[in-house]
Specification:
Order of helices and strands: HHHEHEEHEEEEEHEE
Largest sheet: 6 strands, mixed
Number of helices: 6
Structural class: alpha/beta
CATH superfamily: NagB/RpiA/CoA transferase-like
CATH architecture: 3-Layer(aba) Sandwich
Length: 187
């Protein structure tokens, strides 16, 4: 029953993301970026792990470029499909160092993979299809971020980025493998 509810929410929100007008997406992404860049957790962070946005998600590419300009060390996920895991890798130049991989998800080219220990990450910025006000998160169902968050030091702040329609009230019950985020930013 929980899985059916999650599936229904995923289908609804994937459609809304697909139908979201591009100019609206970019405007809201800009507002969300302003909120992120003013957070004390972001201001304090030396190293930030950002997701690489895809499929109508909150745009993180501009955020990454701005964070690099501010002198932040930026990491992005590298997915190990066979192991169903991901690890963080430092990125310095988005244009030169990234390629598009499975499911249209960008990731570093082999020669630019620079793994970084989880303990060196000061803030994690992650996607979700749905969030509630308590920070509970529903992802795309593959579990990559939940498995990653389970290995992250417990005191590392996590920030979920979403559009206003991705905040839902009737959130499905949590399962043992589900991880919430510390903060949800939306516009």
């Amino acid at each position: 029953m929980i899985q059916e509810k999650k599936k229904k929410i995923r289908e609804e929100l994937l459609k809304k993301l697909k139908d979201h007008k591009e100019d609206e997406r970019l405007k809201k992404s800009f507002k969300i970026a302003k909120k992120l860049f003013s957070l004390k957790e972001f201001l304090k962070a030396k190293t930030v792990l950002f997701y690489l946005s895809t499929d109508g998600e909150v745009d993180t590419l501009r955020m990454i470029k701005d964070a690099l300009k501010q002198g932040k060390r930026v990491a992005v996920p590298v997915v190990q499909w066979a192991r169903r895991e991901m690890f963080p890798s430092v990125v310095r130049d988005l244009e030169k160092e990234l390629k598009t991989g499975p499911y249209g998800i960008r990731h570093p080219k082999e020669e630019y993979i620079r793994p970084i220990p989880l303990e060196h990450i000061d803030l994690v910025v992650l996607p979700g299809l749905a969030f509630d006000e308590a920070g509970n998160r529903l992802g795309r169902g593959m579990g990559y971020y939940d498995r990653f968050l389970s290995r992250l030091p417990k005191d590392t702040p996590t920030v979920g980025l979403a559009f206003d329609f991705q905040l839902i009230r009737d959130f499905p019950p949590l399962e043992p493998h589900d991880f919430a985020v510390s903060i949800v930013l939306f516009a």
